Amino acid sequence: MGHESWDYIKKKIRKPCLNVGCGKYIFENVDNLDNIEFPKYPIDIKEDFTHSKIPDNTYNSVLLLNVIEHVSSPGIFIQQSYRVLKHKGILIISAPFLTGIHRQPEDFWRFTKEGLIFLCCSFGFKLKEIEGYGVKVLTKIEEEQMWTYYRGVFIK
Description:
alpha/beta, Rossmann fold, seven-stranded mixed beta sheet, 7 strands, 18% helix
């Protein structure tokens, strides 16, 4: 995750906040959850988010930062995010679109901007904002610009 991404996220977080699938990106004053422990990166909650025991309506923000592509059933992560968020809580999500495969441990999906909107709104979220970031790619089809990553903010 680039420095500009963290600056983007910091401005939007409302605490308490849950960082799902944090991997090596451990943030201070945030509950960092993953199902894999990295020795040098201590996490706060070790569990599989698809079967999370976190109570309903616990957090004001949930972060799914470049993790949804590693989940075989991404809808379950979106549904769980909605469940653990308080009323008017925010989901901050980022996902790759035009990037190479990166197994950590698996790599299942790529998401267009429209795909992220559809996925999140299918589980009750409302779109606040979405944008491309990373490297801009110009396609020959109608000279449309695409990005290597998309990130969005959705409201419960």
